[in-house]
Design brief:
The structure is a homodimer of 219-residue chains. The first copy, chain A, has 219 residues and is mainly alpha-helical. In chain A, 58% of the residues lie in helices and 0% in strands. The structure holds a DNA duplex (30 and 30 nucleotides).
Chain lengths: 219, 219
DNA sequence: GTGTCCATGTTGCCGGTGCCCACATCGGCG
DNA sequence: CGCCGATGTGGGCACCGGCAACATGGACAC
């Protein structure tokens, strides 16, 4: 078991969806199956959440027989974990992109604005990619990783910036990350699968603004 | 379809687990199958979350053939919705119980203490009954019901009390419920399936205290 | 060049599930 | 007393996750 140690940053061979014309010699060995399967599984997760990640169907779509997947993943959960990592990475990237978009000449309380932007993007990602977002957290494994990485790392960094900028007393820093994360995550979950589904986009955005404001005030 | 209109507040006949001794005449008609199936399904959800709610197994445990369930539920989702309602009801009840436990002679800011108690119990329930809690929110249907009912209703009432008691400016009331709910729900979810699983109970409680304090401060 | 080995992919199979069908049973009604 | 509709039964289908045995062919030693 534990076959999943191929180089994750694999060469981006476009082996997926090779045109299988009559003359095209179909290779017996796929060459990049693991990565291709993960791509397909991510698509499944995007479309329907964790439950939609189905090994047999993924293999079928990838043009390979079922059971081929078991050469690269111990079981379905192993594949799900990979999808979860992808989801986390994409969420983190979007948050970082959003930060990069912020104008540098922000007057007033720039670090606080960064915190708001990060929180808003967290929710926006969850609403834009509900399936992937849910799958990212559906994985039971605690997502081991260097602290300071992942979405939590981004949030943490921004809070540290607030302390440096004098916008947050240092003695209030411990625990602040968790409060921000919980509020934003809870809002996203309640919007997705909870009782806030019916909110119009405008209402949602207004409520989100209110939430971010209150959270920042309470830090 | 839509057979699910039996009186939900059904008589509590103890038809489950009847001793089927050799002399006990086993009735062809169960008499209370719907309620018994829901009970079993709730047990399944308690044990393993929404995925553990399995129609065939529930029927088996209830001592009835599969397919019998389809006389009472349109499909699995229909049964899940019922489990969800049960979970919501139990959560609400625990919150109300907790409120009732509070001493009436609370000095200082009694309504704020009630808010903290409600929030704490929300998280405690989620941690004590992770499967049922998850299933309660896993149901896609927006949980139609009179506003002011359910866990949200309890929270809402307490916030109204805070306004009446002068502990919360009326202009800050709108949106406060959502912020509280999101923070507490997010904390619970992150503890259950997220990256906060590894926290010891003491750390968790400390973080929860901090969160409740910050949220209250930001209201 | 050639022969071997083993990672990779294939077919076959099993138990389990959700859901549909036709049939069996029984209680209440005329 | 006889019928009928509500309730429960058995069988069947498609699909899934996971094991086992077999097939393929690329890489590497010689």
């Amino acid at each position: 078991m534990g076959t999943g140690n191929m180089d994750t940053t694999a060469r981006k061979v476009d082996t997926v969806n090779m045109v299988e014309g009559p003359g095209a010699a179909r290779r017996y060995h796929h060459g990049n199956l693991r990565a291709a399967l993960i791509d397909t599984a991510v698509d499944q997760a995007r479309a329907g959440g964790a439950d939609a990640v189905v090994l047999r169907d993924a293999a079928r779509r990838t043009g390979v027989s079922h059971n081929a997947a078991y050469r690269h993943f111990a079981d379905r959960d192993d594949l799900l974990a990979e999808v979860s990592s992808r989801g986390m990475a994409e969420l983190e990237q979007r948050m970082r992109d959003r930060l990069a978009d912020l104008p540098a000449d922000d007057h007033g309380r720039p670090a606080a604005a960064r915190l708001r932007a990060v929180g808003r993007e967290y929710v926006h990602f969850a609403l834009a990619e509900p399936g992937l977002f849910a799958t990212a957290f559906a994985c039971g494994r605690p997502e081991e990783g260097a602290p300071g990485q992942g979405p939590y790392g981004v949030l943490s960094t921004v809070l540290d910036e607030m302390v440096s900028a004098g916008e947050l007393p240092a003695e209030r820093r411990p625990g602040a990350d968790l409060t921000c994360w919980a509020a934003v995550h809870g809002f996203a979950v309640l919007c997705l699968q909870g009782p806030l589904q019916e909110l119009s986009e405008q209402e949602r955005e207004a409520q989100l603004d209110g939430l971010l404001e209150r959270v920042a005030r309470g830090l």
